Amino acid sequence: MKKTFLIAAALIAVLLGSCTDKGPSPLVEQAERLQSELTPLAADSPMYLDSIKVSYADAAMTVAISFADPAVNPDDYSQALVEYVVAQYLKAHPGAGLDAVLNGLSDEDGALDIVLTGRSGSSRTYTIGHRRLKQLYRQRPMELNFNEVKNNVASLMAARCNAYRLGVNATDATFAIDGGFAQYTLTFASASAFSNQTQGSILGRYLPGLREQYENYGACRPMIEELLRSLGIDGYRFIYTTPDGSESKRAAAPWRSLN
């Protein structure tokens, strides 16, 4: 009996040892790799991003993004939009590193936590489980809550309406994604308010601000433009019109005009 007990105790010790001898998770190394890749992105986008920090602990890969742009409010970003952007990043970075992250999180029943923090200190965490991460990598954009994402982006872009309205003393301003453009429609009391405007003068009013906005995105600019293109936006359009729509002038600015 004593011998049997000793054998059983030895087996338990071996089993326990095998559980505690695994060493650090390979995801620790992947977090370090991602940190080295994303640090330059933040450094090259100083007007938009303050920092990006990647860490791994307790089956969670955390990517903490702090924004320098005061216009960014994490509460304005839906789970669907964040997942859509993550999907874009995954698809643009295939390879052994991505495989290690996806498989590692799957093996550990883990998740990716995206933590967004605004300049004001407001913060929001978006958790994406390992199964969903693999879906984001494999599925087409139209399968990733496309309409919800498009509506979220439209609401973000519509936030500029009031500033545009005040800038030209219009009575109203609305936004829509229409015909391949991010379209701002400014309504005036009468056509005389914009009768002396031309396509060139309208673009002259808005292009400098748009160019500055996109320059401030820094190294993040290609990602943002790709996001908008994937939603069917090929540039901006500004329309000056009357309440009944009987008279109007419009000016379009495709992406190339923002360079």
Structural overview:
The protein starts with a helix and ends in a 5-residue tail after the last strand. The strands form two sheets. It has a four-stranded mixed sheet with strand order 1-2-3-4. A four-stranded mixed sheet has the order 5-6-7-8, covered by helices on one side. The chain contains nine helices and eight strands. A hairpin with a 2-residue loop joins strand 5 and strand 6 (181-187). It is elongated, with a radius of gyration of 25 Å. It is of the alpha/beta class.
Tell me the layout of helices and strands.
Blueprint: H1 2-20, H2 26-43, E1 49-57, E2 60-67, H3 79-92, H4 96-107, E3 111-117, E4 123-129, H5 130-138, H6 146-158, H7 161-168, E5 172-178, E6 181-187, H8 199-216, H9 221-230, E7 235-241, E8 248-254
Parallel strand pairs: 2-3, 6-7
Antiparallel strand pairs: 1-2, 3-4, 5-6, 7-8
